Amino acid sequence: MIRKLIYLQLATMLFACRTAYGETGCSLQDTTTIKPIRLNEVHVSGRLNPLKIAPGRLTYQVAKGSAGSSGSALELLRRMPGVSILANGKISLNGQAGIQLLVDGKTNFMDGENLINFLASMPAASLDVVELITQPDATMDANGDARFINLKRINRTAPGLSVSLSTNAEQGKYSRTFQNIAVSANTAKLAMSHTYSYGEGTELIDVNSTRYISKEGDRGGNALRLDMDAVRKRNYRNHYYNGTLDYAPNDHVKMGTYVLINNHERTKQEAVRSNFFNSSSQVDSSIATGNVLGHTFRNFSTGAHLTVQFGAGSKWENYLDRQQFNQSETQDQLLDKFGADGSETALQQKLRGETGGKVTITTVQSKYMLDIRPNMTASFGGKLTQVNMRTNSFYQQTHDNSWQERADLTNTFGHEEQLKALFMQTRFSPSDLFQIDVGLRFEAAAFKSRTVHDKDTDFTMLRSYKNLFPNLTATYAMDAEQKLSLNYHRRVNRPNFKDLSPFVEVNDPYLYEKGNSALKPEFVHTMELTWLFKNSYSLQLRYNLRQNAISKSYNLDEQRRTVVMPMNMEHASNVGLRFNAASISPLKKWNIQLNGNLNYTSFEWRTATDVHRNRRLIPSLQVQNTVSLPFKLSLELNGFWNGSTAEGQATMASLWSMNTAVRKTILQDKLTLYIYANDLFRTNRPKIIFSSDAMEGKYRELYDSRAIGINLSYRLHRGMKGNLKSDRTNERLEENSRINY
């Protein structure tokens, strides 16, 4: 059915193109010529900077920069100022982990590996603008710690046919490939687009850890030492399709719909060796564990939008969106135990399990924007979000050569959310020098969670809250080049679906990872003072306070197994200084983009025996160099360094990485060749040190991150050029009109 729908949309697109341009209107003949720009008979030339800085927002125009040649959206983000992506997939913005992804201004609910896979499937060529937002207003969801990455898709309005082709191959220890094609066709009233990508490859992860375990908290000579070494090999395949259809019967009405399909399949083979030491340097016993895990993730999303413009300064936007996520996993585990002399001490144990889950998210929003006066604008509206989540797991283990259910690993979990929101945002400029932005968002949230372990254990939790989330920004223009801005906002971090699910991931008999259905939302207060110079340089002083901060915990259960799970801490706070430079040019052909941060972070939590604190002064630096060479060549050298970072009970050791690339354009800039090398010195190795009442340890991951790759992309547009003046006039009102994923 899906294949027929795609074929039908392609046929409709080609028919519309023939209607607009006649029998030969859809030919892909390259007729582009290079012409100088004239303004009142004056020739204009110069280099366009794709990066623009405003208080609380950094904007990168993909088509104007070299990062658009990166292949996938994930590789594009690696080259964004202030964005660092660790080898384990964690995304940080301005030196702080935890981001909220938006696509065309809408919340994307994926997290962890699923989010990374989604970004790796999305072509960078399908994006128009990337926004890095640290001062969200009331029209945006209150969820998230004010670190937003908004990916805006290309919205072509000029009649014509556009085609973009790209292929990418990467070689580390193992190979990875990525291909995509994007086709769009516009007439005066109808616009259609199709984007498809496919990626496959193999990833390798080496993991080693050391844990010191004692019931009395004695980590000296009486503590049990457990060393673990694991090799994980993952084979994956990604499919991504996004189709859109927009119709504008006149200049005042626009409506449209979209379909998004994202399928990810992964097989992981894991070999784990755990050695136990008891008061000596000799191995007392050991365990060899083999895991084979199958993972399937499917996302089907669809929606529709309607926009009505009543006049030059009045607009009404509405959208309906439905996202559905299905995930299933299988696990087969073999375990052998050995004594100090290497002989087997017990029969081989076998564990097998199946887990499955389905999440459906339905969202309806209506927003009205109005220019009240020449110096005053307002936006207000409402939003309803309904979440329904169902998950289940079933595990069995061999005992006396027969399979028996593992009741402690088997459960059923259901979770429902209903979120109602009303919002208002106003901008007022009493003079040419002063501007005030003030907004208020009201949210009423209700949650219902039910966990069933067996017929005798059935636990239901009901929670609800009503909260106001204000924001205020005052901006003063000191002169024609300098601005000073002060911002305050309050936000909430709700637990993600993986953190809520009580599923247990069994790495080996002594290491479990699971969710926590009792997690509470954390509330965040933030203040920022920003100095801005020429919209290209900024200096920012920031403070935030997190109540009930959510972070990972490392504890022991009754069987002395290490259990990793999220928990609520008492509070966390951060004081930080940030510097951004969009363009520094030591030489005419050399451009530098710079992002530097200095954060002081503090976490505090209580256990049964004590109050614990983790405090760190965390420096971070990211530098991106681009050198323009003759013959339309450009050279890139990028790098980042993060100092030792506090993350709740854990501390992440400092790490750094360097990437380089060469870019060449030919055929009137239609064909781009991009050759790159990531993690040149293989230094992007996350290392975590953790501590709790009865245990401390360290954990290191080594990924197949050092790789060389090549990307070849071709773009072609056939038809009329867009009306730039019209596009700029409607830029403010059109900001969130596309509802495409």
From TrEMBL:
* Main localisation: membrane
Tell me the PROSITE patterns matching this sequence: PROKAR_LIPOPROTEIN (PS51257)
**Where is it located?**
Cell outer membrane
Tell me which UniProt keywords the record has, alphabetically.
Answer: Cell outer membrane, Membrane, Signal
Q: Which domain of life is it from?
A: Bacteria
For the keyword Membrane, the answer is: yes
Cross-referenced InterPro entries: Beta-barrel_TonB_sf, OMP_b-brl_3
Renumbered to this chain, the signal peptide range is 1-22
Domain Outer membrane protein beta-barrel, which positions?
323-714
Gene Ontology cellular component terms for the protein in this record: cell outer membrane
- By its UniProt entry, which Gene3D superfamilies does this protein fall under? TonB-dependent receptor, beta-barrel domain
Pfam families with a match to the protein in the record: OMP_b-brl_3
Q: Which PANTHER family match?
A: PLUG DOMAIN-CONTAINING PROTEIN (PTHR40980), TONB-DEPENDENT RECEPTOR-LIKE BETA-BARREL DOMAIN-CONTAINING PROTEIN (PTHR40980:SF4)
Q: What is this protein called?
A: Outer membrane protein beta-barrel domain-containing protein
